[in-house]
Amino acid sequence: MMKIETRAASSVKHPHGLALLSDPARNKGTAFTLEERERYGLVGLLPDAVEDIDRQAQRVLAHLETKKTDLGRYIYLVGLCDRNETLFYRVVMSDPKRFLPIIYAPTVGEACRKFGHIFRQPRGMYLSIRHKGRVKEILSRWPETDVRFICVSTGGRILGLGDLGANGMGIPIGKLQVYTACAGIPPHGLLPLLLDIGTTNQDLIDDPLYLGTRQAPPDDADLDAFVEEFVAAVQDLFPRCCIHFEDWKGTDAIRMLARYRDKVLCYNDDIQGTAATALAGLASASAIKGSKLRDERILFLGAGSAGLGIADMIVTAMTREGLTREEARARVWMADVNGLLHSGRNDLSPAQAVYAHPHAPAINLAEIVAAVKPTALIGVSTAGGAFNEGVIRAMAALNQRPVIFALSNPTEKAECTAEQAYRWSDGRALFAAGVQFADVDLGGRVLTPGQANNFYIFPAVALAVYATEARLITDDVFVEAARALAAQVTPEQRARGLLFPPQENILAVEIATATEVARHIFAAGLARVPEPEDLDAWIAGMTYSPDYAS
């Protein structure tokens, strides 16, 4: 990886003394050389020893060993990022399989629940609904002028935890840290942002340590006007910026994506990123079975924004394999809390209605499985345990290799565990979850469950967008990302039932995916920069390396 020039290296004015030690982008701590200590007024403000970053990382790892819980480790690592950003990424990128579950899902869910109680200092920006009419003025206060990504949430639907209001700020912070940790996107151009529109969560309103606006969210018209002001301000202030919508209430998420996807550079990870990750898993499962995606018959439990996003992307991918859109939709079925979506129901949205096929009403999931005869069962319901023994055994009776995706998170919201899926299918399930489950020993045979986590997709798409300065992000961009990800699962890994590449090499995986996505962006005419001769080297050269600037 090439060292990217960062804000720390490029800024004209360099802070001195305690101000430098308080600047996480420039601070090196005990790694400042003796000459630098003299130059920047640090003599006497640091211990005498001069250490390299690897020695500092050794100390960080020792500190982490003393923490008893992942939440404690999360709090420590967030504090480290606030003090020394480079050292934070050095540690996290050294062992992503270990640290991603701490800075991201599932631990970030617990951190959001308790955000006001574990708050140390602000990171990112907070725009309250009370700031309506002043959004551009306030947003212009951010010190970085070349913001390339804003991850923005209202906190309206955090993971499977519901409306957490301003506590949801933990998600944009964590998502953008994953941009850097997984895909090497330089951190100085990343802005986490919370649109504080209020909350419906009375427990938070009653909590004296809650940090958000203590009022109910506005109606759709007022919210849309507030978001329009925000989007317009971003276009004026940061013209190369991509808006990453994250963890909005489902109806808001669908509406915002529909409104802006063809107008500005934006995407919604809960809809498009989740969809592409599931699509990659299905592509790997189809390869293991020796079939094609177009042959799958898919049943969803959950018909909200995530389920509809996955379904729509599957349909798009199936049309690439020769089906018409109508034929592809006929291979996708959905169920929600009121049972099977069928053409006789009158409580469906237009987006849901296209997956409501002629069928008798049905409520029981095992009976729906027996009637629909799916080859793949995908859970995006947040109904923990919904894939019970009867459901899994019904899938196993229909399929030699039943595909079971329990994608809801955090862990307690997963529709089933890996052990349940494997045990109730006699070890035949091709399984993935939204969280990482441990290996399962089934009669001496060790099975490794996959994690269908969005971190396989959205950082790679972001790296490709960052490099190409794309004008728009289409669904085809995400389909290409899914294809490129699935192609990296080796035959040996597929033989072991793996649906996704190992997390240990996540940076290499993301760069490879980003390269193929960038190739598509250039071919589709979406790039704002010329295509380089050596695309692979060009993408790799964009990536950030967690080393101190000299």
Any overview of this molecule?
With 550 residues, this protein is an alpha/beta fold. The protein folds into three domains: 52-264, Malic enzyme, N-terminal domain (Rossmann fold), CATH 3.40.50; 272-452, NAD(P)-binding Rossmann-like Domain (Rossmann fold); 456-541, Malic enzyme, N-terminal domain (Rossmann fold), CATH 3.40.50. The protein is built from 26 helices and 14 strands. The chain has helices spanning 7-10, 17-21, 34-39, 53-65, 70-83, 85-94, 96-103, 107-113, 115-118, 135-139, 170-183, 202-206, 220-237, 250-260, 269-289, 305-320, 325-329, 350-353, 365-372, 389-398, 418-424, 458-468, 475-486, 491-495, 506-523, 535-541; strands at 125-128, 149-153, 190-196, 242-245, 266-268, 298-301, 332-336, 339-340, 376-379, 403-406, 430-433, 440-442, 445-447, 450-451. It has a seven-stranded mixed β-sheet with strand order 8-7-6-9-10-11-14, with helices on both faces. It has a five-stranded parallel β-sheet with strand order 1-3-2-4-5, sandwiched between helices. A two-stranded antiparallel sheet has the order 12-13. It is globular, with a radius of gyration of 24 Å. Mean pLDDT is 95; it is low at 1-12.
